[in-house]
């Protein structure tokens, strides 16, 4: 396939930065290339190859040495904010944090203040309905333009079509849409709950720094946090080769930059086994583990 590069290093495309390559690779950075995406998808399907979309890679652990399918890196940026209507339109790979910061500093629009320092792209945030400190992506969401991977048509999904839930949306449930752009109405403040936490101080001073994708395991329930269980089985700051749980927050799975995905999987297994043995609770990953399995 003419557009695709081969055996490309993709280590830095996941926030864990464990060494990895892609058998086939394509980077899309303009709207004109959307047609190529559909061609690539059809080609991949004819060869029974998997496809992995990556925007900023802040929510995925590569569990392979080489991804045997096609990796498509989304790099289309650009956004526009209308001061009068307070409508924001943005392309998929734009950083949600940068937009939030600029809205505040340039347009005196602080509705997305909570998203300052939230890593990842608009696409990634819409995909799993990212949220923090009472603000969720669905709150001001109006619509998104998507490429339907089954028929190659571009269409619009409205908020009602999105089936937004806690860290979930139709994009995650059906995995057949590629987000091109999204529209948000920032004229009204909508919060899920009010929080007094200073998000910038929290991100700067209380959140672990390094190669991580935020909380690795889902909290088993509202009352039981995954970090608490990991602490209780003495795994906080526990290290297996290059993988460890942070001493600042036990649910932050970290990579020290010198290990491999195998260290990460080993530590994940140990945590799951110990928590199940001690508490009879099966903790599940929140971060996506990407494998070559079909
Ligand atoms: C330090 C840190 C702190 C964080 N804090 C929070 C927090 O407070 N709250 C919260 O909710 N999250 C938090 N996160 C998680 C982060 O917000 C999400 O990981 C982010 O929204 C994902 O965006 P991304 O661009 O990195 O997506 P990626 O990791 O690149 O992709 C995520 C998923 O979206 C899919 N995808 C990517 N692009 C497209 C596209 N164009 N169309 C369709 N599917 C696509 C991918 O295939 C993948 O399945 C944190 C992460 C880190 C590292």
Give the gist of this structure.
The protein is 24% helix and 28% strand.
What labels would you give this structure?
binds flavin-adenine dinucleotide, Uridine Diphospho-n-acetylenolpyruvylglucosamine Reductase, domain 3, 17 strands, 294 residues, 28% strand, Uridine Diphospho-n-acetylenolpyruvylglucosamine Reductase, domain 2, alpha+beta, four-stranded mixed beta sheet, globular, Uridine Diphospho-n-acetylenolpyruvylglucosamine Reductase, domain 1, five-stranded antiparallel beta sheet
Describe this structure in words.
- The chain has 294 residues and is an alpha+beta fold.
- The protein has three domains: 5-74, 2-Layer Sandwich (Uridine Diphospho-n-acetylenolpyruvylglucosamine Reductase, domain 2), CATH 3.30.43.10; 79-185, Uridine Diphospho-n-acetylenolpyruvylglucosamine Reductase, domain 3, CATH 3.30.465; 208-290, UDP-N-acetylenolpyruvoylglucosamine reductase, C-terminal domain (Uridine Diphospho-n-acetylenolpyruvylglucosamine Reductase, domain 1, Alpha-Beta Complex), CATH 3.90.78.10.
- The protein has helices at 34-46, 96-107, 122-127, 170-174, 199-206, 226-232, 261-279; strands at 5-9, 21-28, 51-54, 60-62, 66-74, 79-82, 87-91, 131-132, 135-136, 141-148, 154-158, 177-185, 211-215, 239-240, 243-245, 252-255, 288-290.
- A hairpin with a 2-residue loop joins strand 8 and strand 9.
- It is globular.
- The structure holds flavin-adenine dinucleotide.
- Flavin-adenine dinucleotide (FAD) binds at residues 15, 53-60, 74, 92, 118-121, 123-125, 127, 130-132, 171, 178-179, 207, 212-214, 288.
């Amino acid at each position: 396939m003419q557009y695709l590069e081969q055996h490309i290093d993709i280590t830095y495309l996941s926030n864990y930065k464990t060494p990895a390559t892609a058998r086939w690779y394509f980077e899309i950075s303009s709207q004109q290339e959307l047609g190529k995406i559909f061609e690539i998808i059809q080609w991949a399907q004819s060869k029974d190859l998997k496809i992995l979309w990556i925007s900023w890679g802040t929510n995925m652990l590569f569990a392979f040495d080489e991804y045997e399918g096609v990796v498509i890196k989304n790099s289309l940026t650009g956004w526009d904010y209308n001061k009068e209507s307070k409508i924001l339109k943005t392309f998929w790979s734009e950083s949600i944090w940068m937009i939030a910061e600029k809205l505040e500093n340039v347009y005196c629009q602080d509705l997305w203040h909570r998203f300052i320092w939230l890593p990842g792209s608009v696409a990634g945030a819409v995909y799993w309905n990212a949220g923090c400190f009472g603000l969720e992506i669905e709150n001001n969401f109006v619509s998104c333009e998507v490429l339907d991977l089954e028929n190659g048509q571009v269409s619009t999904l409205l908020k009602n079509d999105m089936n937004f839930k806690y860290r979930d949306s139709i994009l995650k449930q059906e995995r057949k849409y590629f987000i091109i752009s999204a529209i948000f109405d920032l004229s009204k403040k909508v919060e899920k709950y009010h929080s007094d936490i200073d998000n910038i101080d929290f991100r700067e001073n209380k959140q672990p720094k390094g190669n991580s994708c935020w909380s690795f395991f889902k909290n088993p329930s509202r009352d039981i946090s995954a970090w608490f269980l990991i602490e209780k089985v003495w795994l906080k700051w526990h290290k297996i080769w290059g993988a460890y749980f942070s001493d600042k927050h036990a649910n932050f799975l970290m990579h020290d930059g010198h290990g491999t995905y195998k260290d990460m999987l080993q530590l994940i297994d140990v945590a799951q086994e110990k928590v199940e043995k001690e508490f009879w609770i099966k903790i599940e990953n929140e971060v996506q583990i990407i494998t070559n399995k079909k």
